[in-house]
Amino acid sequence: MKIRKPTREILPKVSAMLSSAFPKSRYEAKLVEQFHGNDTPIHEWVCIHINKVIAYIAFSNAYNGNEICGLHLAPLAVAPKFQRQGFGSELLNFALRQESIKKSPLFVLGNPEFYSKFGFELCTTPICPFDKENRHFLAIRNTTTTRFIVGYEDEFGPS
Ligand SMILES: CC(C)(COP(=O)(O)OP(=O)(O)OC[C@H]1O[C@@H](n2cnc3c(N)ncnc32)[C@H](O)[C@@H]1OP(=O)(O)O)[C@@H](O)C(=O)NCCC(=O)NCCS
Predict the structure, then answer these.
(1) Which of 31, 52, 60, 159 is 20 to 30 Å from 108 by CA-CA measure?
(2) What is the mean pLDDT of residues 71-96?
């Protein structure tokens, strides 16, 4: 298994993997397709295993008004056949060690049980526009003290 940045040629495989990992919606696949189509600045990595994309992770800017205040982790996904075998944890741990990620405040809307293993903590501020009570909104290195609704890239859609 290798972790690397995706090349243009494997992007269709990334989309297919995201659709299979989130079978009920095309939201995540579309999100990543639009990031690439719009040249939105993101940090992303894939896990490749015998020529297959088996996992994917991306980070995009988080905003306080017009200012970047950290990175949103989304999406993280593992192909169904490869779930619960440690690949998601390995890819996330790899990403958290990278220069572009390791000093930035990070935010994620996800399962607290899963993300707390990696140092993410539930936060009360900033407020996630997709989860207004912040029940599943976690952060690392979050130094925010004022209350504001955190901004996402436009590709995430209306909040
Ligand atoms: C969530 C996900 C990224 C985790 O990756 P993974 O490779 O399957 O997870 P790991 O094997 O590294 O598991 C680490 C821990 O996560 C938890 N976990 C993983 N999948 C889980 C699931 N489906 N339900 C509940 N807990 C889960 C477990 O506690 C596991 O620890 P354990 O093996 O000691 O029980 C992956 O299962 C996935 O893509 N799921 C579908 C898409 C999704 O829901 N993504 C959410 C993030 S946006």
Answers:
(1) 52
(2) 98
